[in-house]
Every structure is written in C-alpha cells, then in structure tokens.
Amino acid sequence: MNATRILVGMGLLSTLLLGAVFVAAHPPVESGTLPTSRMLAGGEDLTYEVSWTFLDLGTIRLITRDDYTAVAYIDSYEGVPVVDLHAVFITTMDSSFRSIHSRSMELKDGVWAGLDYRYDQVAGKIFIDAVRMNDPQGDVISRTPRDTMELPGADFVDGLSIAMFPRRFIHTNSRVDVPTILYGKMGTTTFDFTASGVEEELDCLERPVRMHEVTGATSVVGIFGMTGEFTGWFSDDSAAVPLRGKLKVLIGSVELQLIRWNKQGWHPPAS
Questions:
Q1: Is residue 269 one of the residues assigned to a domain?
Q2: What is the distance between the terminal CA atoms of the chain, rounded to a whole angstrom?
Q3: Cβ atoms < 10 Å from Cβ of 102
Q4: For residues 199 and 167, what is the distance between their CA atoms, to the nearest angstrom?
Q5: Residue 209 is assigned to a structural domain of this protein
Q6: Which one-letter DSSP state was computed for residue 237?
Q7: Residues near 232 by Cβ (< 8 Å), separated by ≥ 6?
Q8: Which is nearest to 203 in space by CA: 242, 258, 158, 157?
Q9: Is residue 267 part of a domain?
Q10: Which SS3 state, helix, strand or coil, does residue 35 take?
Q11: How many CB atoms lie under 10 A from the CB of residue 180?
Q12: 22-42 core/surface letters (b: 16 or more CB in 10 A; e: else)
C-alpha cells in the first residue's frame, strides 16, 4: 500500500468517523441523542493529522457551519515520499444531517476533477456526475453523467454527513446498523455506542481528555487494504467533537488526531 492510497483512505475514514460513503441512518435503541444545532452553533474549524505507523502523511481540515454545510480539505505534507494529494469534500445537509448535495474533488494537473452527487428524494434516486472545476467551490466547467443509483431509504445521508452522524449518539447505549454504499458496493456499517466515558491522551495537550469511544465495522472491505474495523473518539460534552480515529489496514493501522481547533467557547474537556 503506498502513501497516496493511505491518505485517501484516511479521507474515507473521516467520513466514517468524523467521499464516497453513503448511509441511511436508523434511530438508536435508547434516548439521549444530542441536538444538532447545539453541536454546530457558531461553526467549527478542526484540523487533524494523518499518520501511518511512524510516518505523518498530511492533514484533514474539517470546517462545519451552523447552516449544516461541511467542507473537508485533505492535503499531504510536502516531502512525503510518493504522495502529492490535495482533495476537497463538500456536503450540504438539513437539520437532521441528511444530505442535500455533496461533491468530492481532487486536484489533478491544475484542474479539480471528481464526482458530484445530486439527490431526488421523490424519485428515490442518486444522480452521479463526473465534473471538472477551476475551483472546488466554484462553478462547474464540465459535467458528464456517470451513474444513477436507488436511494436505500428516505433517511439518507452521505459524504461528510456521515462524519456528523455518530456525534448525535455518543451519550447513548446502543448499536446502530447503517445500510452503506461504498464505491458502488452495498453493505452495512455497525456503530457501537456506550454512555460511559473514557480518559485518553491527545498529543497536542499535556492532560488527559474526557472522551466517548465508538467502535464499529463495515462489511464493505478491500479498498485501501481496509479490514472493515474502525474506532473513533468524541469529546465527552454537548459538542461531541471528533478527536481521534483509527482504521485497521492489512499492514497496521492508519490514525488521525485533532491537532488544532477553532470553535467558539470550546476546548477539549479535561478529566
């Protein structure tokens, strides 16, 4: 597995924990979910470092706004062997974190190219187009129909909205099975939530932080050497900020960890 695929895989992990992942959410078994408006009040700017074994590969910067728009910037570090990656994921959601529109773009030869996902809830379909742009948040300069897929249900989220999904349930004791489409393959992602917190370290802080651990697995495996198992850690407070993530691969594990943040009135909760 080369470093480029690992870093792209971490972009995928950021959609599972924090693309190309699509899910239809089932409600948790128990009550205790958090209001989405409280999580995103004032917006947030979160930066994660991506590493594989002893190699730091790059960063994922996740910006969310209280209008339920999320943007992730994935950039490799200069000088990392055989990797030069710059990608942007954008998702617009409603107040239930259901996706209204999403786009995944990668910089190639000075032009941003990728996939644009449009949803027709009435027809129950996803329309997927290949697009090219001069700016990943600007106007489309070319659009080519790529595929049409059936929506697995009305409560459907995708892209970075799956990054928001676990945040609602970290104070619940529940197991949530999520129908998942990953790169055109159908499967199921299972999240296991527990209401009890843990104390874990963040490299950027000298003190332990109160967190909730979320474990899970997806049955859609094989891309980037994924085994399907992952773990995420979220702040033990009403903001439920993603703090760390780990994804098992064939030769070890890939991790991301929060290194910088700008969220009004918020700091990682001390133990």
A1: no
A2: 38
A3: 26
A4: 18
A5: yes
A6: S
A7: 16, 17, 18, 166, 213, 214, 216, 242, 244, 245, 246
A8: 258
A9: no
A10: coil
A11: 22
A12: bbbbeebeeeebbebeebbbe
Q: Is the pTM of this model over 0.85?
A: no
What are 8-41's pLDDT values in tens digits?
Answer: 544 544 444 443 333 333 333 334 566 777 788 8
| Domain count of the fold of the chain | 1
Rounded Cα–Cα distance for residues 2 and 165 (Å): 30
In a domain, 237, yes or no: yes
Q: Which residues contact 55 (CB under 8 A, 6 or more apart)?
A: 3, 80
CA distance 250 to 52: 12
pLDDT digits (tens, 9 = 90+) for 209-243: 999 999 888 776 544 445 578 888 999 998 899 99
Q: Are 252 and 52 in contact (CB under 8 A)?
A: yes
Q: How many CB atoms lie within 10 A of CB 199?
A: 12
Q: Which domain holds residue 210?
A: 3-262
